[in-house]
Amino acid sequence: MKIAALAGGVGGAKLIHGLAKLLPPDELSVIVNTGDDFEYLGLNISPDLDTVCYTLAELANPVTGWGRKDECWTIYQEIAALDGPKWFHIGDKDLATHILRTYKLNQGLTLSEITAEFCRCWGVKHPVFPMSDQSVRTVVHTAEGEALGFQEYFVHQACEPVVEHFEFVGIEDARPLPQAINAIEACDVVVISPSNPWVSIDPILKIPGYVESIREKPLVAVSPLIGGKALKGPAAKIYAELGVTPSAWAVASHYKDILTGFIFDEQDHHELEKIERWRIIALVTDILMKNDQDRFRLAEEVLRFCETILNRSR
Amino acid sequence: MKIAALAGGVGGAKLIHGLAKLLPPDELSVIVNTGDDFEYLGLNISPDLDTVCYTLAELANPVTGWGRKDECWTIYQEIAALDGPKWFHIGDKDLATHILRTYKLNQGLTLSEITAEFCRCWGVKHPVFPMSDQSVRTVVHTAEGEALGFQEYFVHQACEPVVEHFEFVGIEDARPLPQAINAIEACDVVVISPSNPWVSIDPILKIPGYVESIREKPLVAVSPLIGGKALKGPAAKIYAELGVTPSAWAVASHYKDILTGFIFDEQDHHELEKIERWRIIALVTDILMKNDQDRFRLAEEVLRFCETILNRSR
Questions:
Q1: How far apart are CA B181 and CA B190, in angstroms?
Q2: Which of A115, A265, B52, B258 is in the most buried spot, having the most CB atoms within 10 Å?
Q3: Nearest chain B alpha carbon to A68
Q4: What are phi and psi of A177, to 5 degrees?
């Protein structure tokens, strides 16, 4: 069974890691949000892409979920000693990725070419695609009228400003990565990882072309919320600020026009009936991923659920 | 007594370090070659400027003379693991300087502004000036007809190609740093540190404006050669390839139109008469700087010699 998975950062990467243990490289492709990409210290940083790659390469920091394990902080300290910017913590190993990526982008290589090259070096066998080789930048418009770059909002301001709406700058001119579209066309099921629908998955879905391809396939999403809360990140806070009570139902509602199956947590079992009313096939299970075992168990359940959906649609 | 000193990399930095121990910040200014500057991994690197600053800040690697002490090599290793460029060894601490410099240059700050800011953070009290805020790039034209950037020649090709001549690209349009000219105008003696005349001092002297200012002052140079050999770097090899037997005399000859006093090693005592024939005042002493004590001793001798020269010209 071939899966094309859409992913954002830490939560999404965990499920992808589980799926990659169960599926060979020709049966799992990953399409990653790059709306969070930004420049820091003049370096091009792709936080979600790196989180997915580091996780698949088993180089990720197991505590934070992002960044590198066994990391060093020399550069961060030296730049702080020189009164340089310090709101974004980048470890030395992680920084090497950004330096070389920036160098190669400036040489004219595309983000997808660079990602493929890095994956080869890190031993990542499953194809990992940035959603686009064109720049899309998530901008957070706040209740106070500010327009913040996503990392400025997420890291520098610790998600404190109240969100009014999101803007994906450049999205009209961005094109889906052709290899990503091929992966969707060749797959049996598209899986949306447990990532923030607003800022991790929407940037992918809103690039002209993706939804048209995804509609042709069964689509299974895994909720990033449990009991109305996000395990990490501001998804629940954003829902509330946008006037929607954060819940599994709200996530399903977000995707409902294209959703075939939806996987959410036992804690949210009471929402089952409301979700099934939309003819969405539901799986209620333990979706919390605390450790590697949880990732593999959930990935197995996701694949089994995808099989069920495929059999139903046959 | 006020000194304005011209310097290149390691050898020059050692003498500057000695002079800085003896003179307060308002009596010693340092004007540093930037012809060796180059881009590596998209980062702006100023090898001589960094060597002088690190040495004055007592952050320099005492073994190599360049780079930082207690250095780490994480980034170098990670970039090598990603099949990135690896011919130029940059440690992590050193790299932080280059990242922040590049970032600030791209923000529109000048190299001299950035250098002043870094010096403040590193606790370097003596003014250190890049020779110019405009780019001058030393290019090595080789006997095989190649044109190599200086670091490409010096580091990547380990000075192996035979030198035909040097070119300082951009030098016609470069302007001396105004603060450096002020320092020369305010000084009692200009000192040329024991740096490579061809590639460390010539780029400074050939920027239109420097020689005109320097001519107004007594000029003392310290030979970078002992017994016809350079302690470090290709100075002797370059002399030979340009058809000049490397010697103290050859160095004095290089500067003879502007030279008042010349300090060279006891080993080269036999050249004294030949040098004095040009009415250059000579000091023959032990110029080898193996350790900090040597730097301070030589710096004391340089200052005493400058006093002598000043008294003679009064």
A1: 11
A2: B52
A3: B78
A4: -65, 125
Q: What's the whole-number mean pLDDT along residues A257-271?
A: 97
Q: How many whole angstroms separate alpha carbon B13 and alpha carbon B4?
A: 14
**CA atoms of B140 and A111, how far apart (whole Å):** 35
Q: What DSSP string runs through B69-127?
A: TT---HHHHHHHHTT---SS---HHHHHHHHHHHHHHHTT--HHHHHHHHHHHHT--S-
Per-residue pLDDT band for A231 (boundaries 50, 70, 90) equals: confident
Q: With beta carbons less than 8 A apart as the criterion, state whether B39 and B105 touch.
A: no
Domains and CATH numbers, chain B: 3-59+125-135+172-313 (3.40.50.10680)
In this prediction the pTM is 0.94
Chain B residue numbers with beta carbons less than 8 Å from the beta carbon of A122 are: 82
What CA–CA distance (Å, rounded) separates B307 from B246? 29
Q: Which amino acid is at B249?
A: W
Q: State the amino acid at position A265 in one-letter form.
A: D
Dihedral, A119, A121, A126, A129 alpha carbons, nearest 10: 20
By Cβ distance, the residue of B78, B83, B103 closest to A93 is B78
Mean local confidence (pLDDT), B65-81: 96
Contact A78 B92 (CB under 8 A): yes
Which of A32, A27, A26 has the alpha carbon at shortest distance from A11? A32
Q: Are A87 and A151 in contact (CB under 8 A)?
A: no
List CB contacts (< 8 A) between A95 and chain B. Answer: 75
Nearest residue to A300 (alpha-carbon basis) of A17, A12, A48: A17
Neighbour-count burial of B2, counting CB atoms closer than 10 A to its CB (0-12 exposed, 13-18 middle, 19+ buried):
middle
Rounded CA gap, A264 and A254, in Å? 14
Q: Does B103 touch chain A (CB under 8 A)?
A: yes
Contact B75 A82 (CB under 8 A): no
Interface pTM, i.e. ipTM? 0.92
CA distance A204 to chain B (A): 27
- By Cβ distance, the residue of A42, A85, A96 closest to B79 is A96
| Cβ–Cβ contact B42 with A under 8 A | yes
- Residues of chain B positioned with their CB less than 8 A from the CB of A54: none
pLDDT band at B313 (very low <50, low <70, confident <90, very high): confident
- The residue of B59, B70, B72, B75 whose CB has the most chain A CBs within 10 angstroms, and thus the best one to mutate to test that interface, is B75
Question: What is the tens place of the pLDDT at every residue in A81-123?
Answer: 999 999 999 999 999 999 999 999 999 999 999 999 999 999 9
Burial environment of residue A28 by CB neighbours within 10 A (0 to 12, 13 to 18, 19 or more): buried
